[in-house]
């Protein structure tokens, strides 16, 4: 299994750390799930931007080329050796990381969980991630704007990674809105929609074929917003489609009306904030705070899609848009940091 690795040298107690100030070069790691999907690429962009903004950080950003938990564990263990000043972890299989995270803590390496909370039994007590219930509710609220009250029919829901808690939270939020606001609709699923691009397209193709009268197909992962518009185009079927995340193809589908909306967890912010908090803890000689940092949710629809596409054009445009927003959040931690047990 090949790995994608970026080594970036910037220009110019619960989570570990000795509490000593460090003004020289920092060696940090960002270990994420895969290089092949947009959400994880976005988080890596944010992580790299934080390292570059400091100006004296070497960031080892590594991921498998395709979701592979055991390979990611190997990358994390390698980062324990190469990134002694702190590691941020984003994983789709967090339960595999109990021992690796504790190994990092035993080596006095600060760790931050990104996107998915650290599993029970670890000493990683800082989590930078969304309210995924809110992400799902936001998609549901956009959906009902397109469905008149009293409408009957099937609404089919897909889940890219069954068993992954954060996607299940999105589904819970989505279904809650639909059941409350459009009780005459019949919800089917969630069905396994797979996460890798080809698998996702094939899975959705089968799901759409098996539900010929459905009025809507809704996904909660990134690839759903790519696959569903392609299926609409290829089959000529007319149905509502919506999803989460900001894959470039999905943004184009919102612009042309193939998707009614995307609910964005604003992944860039998570990568930036996690790495910046590691940097700041080392520069200030303070341990990482404990708790859940929620950077927020953005709904992308026909009204703002062109603006979002401009900011997503490249890494420079992302940096120009997000950095001030991230720094504003970091300047007001009490507003964004809540107890870990409130994460939803």
Would you spell out the secondary-structure blueprint of this structure?
Elements: E1 3-9, E2 26-31, H1 38-54, E3 57-64, H2 69-82, E4 86-89, H3 98-106, E5 111-114, E6 126-128, H4 132-145, E7 153-159, H5 165-181, E8 185-192, H6 197-209, E9 216-219, H7 224-235, E10 240-244, H8 248-256, E11 261-264, H9 267-284, E12 291-293, E13 298-300, H10 305-311, H11 315-330, H12 333-336, E14 337-338
Parallel strand pairs: 2-3, 2-4, 4-5, 5-6, 6-12, 7-8, 7-9, 9-10, 10-11
Antiparallel strand pairs: 1-3, 11-13, 12-14
What oligomeric assembly is this protein in?
Answer: single chain
Largest beta sheet: strand ordering: 1-3-2-4-5-6-12-14
Structural class: alpha/beta
Helix segment tally: 12
Mind describing the biggest β-sheet?
8 strands, mixed
Helix content: 40-55%
Amount of beta strand: 15-25%
Q: Mind telling me the CATH superfamily name of the largest domain?
A: Response regulator
Order of helices and strands: EEHEHEHEEHEHEHEHEHEHEEHHHE
**Overall pLDDT level:** 93
User: Segments where pLDDT lies below 50 for 5+ residues?
Assistant: 1-14
What is the CATH-assigned architecture of the largest domain?
A: 3-Layer(aba) Sandwich
Radius of gyration, whole Å: 20 Å
Count of extended strands: 14
Class of the largest domain, according to the CATH hierarchy? Alpha Beta
Tally of structural domains: 2
N→C terminal distance = 33 Å
CATH names the topology of the largest domain as Rossmann fold
Shape: elongated
